[in-house]
Amino acid sequence: MITQESHPSVAVTEFLSAAHPSAKIEMSIYEHFPQSILDKRYTFNKDINLVNEDFLKEIQSSLTPQEELAVHSRIVINKKVFHIPMIDFCCTRDTLSEFRSTTLSILPKKICNEFLIYNSGNSLHGYGLTLLPSNKWIDYLGRLLLLNLPSRPPIVDSRWVGHRLRAGYASLRWSNNTSAHRSPPKLIATLNTI
User: Fold this and answer.
1) C-alpha span between 50 and 71 (Å, rounded)
2) What pTM did the predictor assign?
3) Which domain holds residue 115?
4) What is the dihedral of CA 9, 15, 18, 21, to 10 degrees?
């Protein structure tokens, strides 16, 4: 059940298990190198019905002190690739709330209707509970960049978008293993209520 303070794994696994029980979710164990183009990353796929609290605890206990666990936007269903809409915001909750109407006008309505906002300890993360076909994913990332309006505080981390375009998938952290991160992500609002 998705509740306030829930981890994003709860919403993502509940959504995919109900709507697409045969889905395979892509994840990775990675080491981040600040201001670098590349991360050291081991990527793997997991059947969505096997991504549960025990699995996540097992993975997190196996991480080295330099590693984190990330979920990727890329989902495989019957050999077709889809993407979970994700955002790495670079603004405060107050700024996001102030410019919510801009966000709602630029992003597709279907995505906005079920978009969850998490405080990751370092930034706000967003997850849409819908899937984008691969051919719509680049358009979505372009819309994210358009959220950063001239003469206003930026909303989206444009470097994150650049890294995700280069990689071909979005990625957000699910663990809290290294000293660089203050806390695991926790649900704080929906895009409609922030």
Assistant:
1) 14
2) 0.92
3) 8-190
4) -60
